[in-house]
Amino acid sequence: MTELLYGKIDTESKMEKETHVVSFEKLVFGGDCLGRLADGRAVFVPFVLPGETAEIEIIESKERFARGLLIKLLEESPDRIEAPCPYFGICGGCHYQHLAYSKQLNLKKDLVIDQLQRIGKFTDLPKLEITPSPLPFHYRNQAQFHPVETDSIVSLGFKKASSNEVLPIARCLLIPDDLYQLLPQLELESDSGINRLAMRIDSDGELMLVFEGKNDNPPELSIELPVSSAYLSPDGRNQHLSGNDALVYSIMGKEFLVSPESFFQVNLPVAEEMLHHVLALIESQHDLNILELYSGVGLFTRFLAPHASQLTAIESSASANFDFVTNLEEYDNISLYEGAVEEILPGIVDQVKPIDLVVLDPPRAGLNPKARQALIELAPQQIIYISCDPSTLARDLKHLAEAGYSLQNLQAFDMFPQTAHVETMTVLRRTQRVTS
Predict the structure, then answer these.
(1) E strands within 303-422?
(2) What confidence score (pLDDT) does residue 223 get?
(3) Are 277 and 356 within one domain?
(4) How far apart are CA 316 and CA 140, in angstroms?
(5) Percent of the chain beyond pLDDT 90?
(6) 213 and 350: one domain?
(7) Contact 323/410 with Cβ under 8 angstroms?
(8) Whole-angstrom Cα distance, residue 1 to residue 52?
(9) Which terminus of the chain, N or C, has fewer Cβ atoms within 10 Å?
(10) 255 belongs to a structural domain
């Protein structure tokens, strides 16, 4: 029997706790493993593998399901390996360090297929392959930390699994050494008002600290490190503190300016693989009328523009749009709208028709219903949908299939090794026009 600390909470302060011995059946989307309680309810527990039997503690009990934490493994799976990170199972950042990387890839393929079949109701899917990350560890060019005070010392850490508590850490195996070496050099005062700190590194090795705080203005900061820094106030206002006011990332020979508050891909080699895949899909297509939704700082736009006679982009982030204009200044065939896709797209459907290709990369929540309906009314010939959440992807693809689109191509990309997250790229073509 192996006793583990995975996800453990403070049980000593509880007079009573509900424990069960459970045999586990399969991993489900999100990182948990599914088992059955004696009453037949499904129970979801992180850090357990199929075929294992474990003693668990119930932390959430509903009529049809429960959630639990692992207390002790009674029977281990032969697939289990020793996680290299000492925080694994306590920190909530990783889900699969107890699985070999090749098995993580196969699992993610299976989970994408499961979501598309179960939620999307697809019965005849195109063959799915998954592109691995060249680096299973040390791949993140940015990470966000939370301050936590222990014994009058403010440390930095990540949220614990199944908890909002912050776990102080000395090292994270997902970030490169340059960021790791910066971590112990940072000192925060307990009254600084800082509630989050992002560390970033660009393609030139430039380091940036992005402080987020509770106050409109930054606290007094003494920054003696050779880094750039910025402060984001609660209203999202960016205040430059030191060094450069933006980072520069290089992808496929192109440089991208990225402001401190703008999103950019955290795993550049996998982002390049995604771009290669998009370009392979449209390599023989030119003079297209393209619509790009959630265009960000223009990563995909930069490579789509040479294939377009006209490209219309929509993005809600003001800082991303500022970067977009800089990154796409060499092109004169691009129009950019600032605002939420669900607010902008319904109003320009008639203006931008006809559209040959729509490329969209929405946030985890997927398409807002208003945006999805406007996309259906737009009736583009082809859609390339890039998703970071297979469940919302499956939901949206189901609606698009009902509107006359056929799923033609399916490819997954392991942007986030050791975690339950996966990027999926799908290609849909309009085969019929369905009218209500």
Answers:
(1) 308-315, 334-338, 357-360, 382-387, 405-413
(2) 66
(3) yes
(4) 25
(5) 83
(6) no
(7) no
(8) 12
(9) C
(10) no
* Residue whose C-alpha is closest to residue 277's, from 122, 128, 120: 128
**3-class state of residue 179 by DSSP:** helix
Based on the fold, state whether residues 366 and 386 are members of the same structural domain. Answer: yes
* 5-29 average pLDDT score: 72
Structure tokens at 295: 């265009």
Write down the residue that tokens 């401190």 correspond to. 260
Structure confidence by residue, pLDDT tens digits, 134-164: 999 999 999 999 998 877 778 899 999 878 8
C-beta of residue 331 within 8 angstroms of C-beta of residue 279: no
Q: What is the CATH number of the domain that holds 23?
A: 2.40.50.140
Give the other-Cβ count within 10 Å of 177's Cβ: 9
pLDDT at 317 over 90: yes
Q: Which residues contact 175 (CB under 8 A, 6 or more apart)?
A: 138, 140, 143, 199
Going along 132-286, which residue ranges are E strands? 142-150, 153-159, 166-168, 194-201, 207-213, 228-232, 238-242, 247-251, 254-258
Domain hosting residue 313, numbered range: 110-134+267-430
Which tokens is 242 given? 């030191």
Q: Are residues 128 and 275 in the same domain?
A: yes
Domain count, the chain: 3
- Report yes or no: 32 and 42 within 8 Å, Cβ to Cβ: no
Quick check: 221 pLDDT over 80? Answer: no
Q: Single out the residue of 271, 237, 236 nearest to residue 251, CA to CA.
A: 271
* 152 lies in the same domain as 221: yes
**Domain identity same for 242 and 300:** no
**Domain co-membership, 282 together with 388:** yes
Banded model confidence at residue 190, pLDDT cuts 50, 70, 90: confident
- Is residue 306 domain-shared with residue 184, that is, in the same domain? no
Residue 34 forms part of a structural domain: yes
Q: What percent of the chain is predicted at pLDDT more than 70?
A: 95
Which residues does the annotation mark as catalytic? 388, 423
What CATH number does the domain containing 336 carry? Answer: 3.40.50.150
User: Which is it for the CA torsion 86, 90, 93, 99, positive or negative?
Assistant: positive
Q: Note whether residue 204 is domain-resident.
A: yes
pTM above 0.90, yes or no: yes
In a domain, 87, yes or no: no
Q: What are the residues facing 27 on neighbouring strands?
A: 33
User: How wide is the angle at C-alpha 115 spanned by C-alphas 114 and 119, nearest 5°?
Assistant: 120
Q: Are strands 334-338 and 405-413 parallel, antiparallel or unpaired?
A: unpaired
Distance CA 345, CA 291 (A): 10
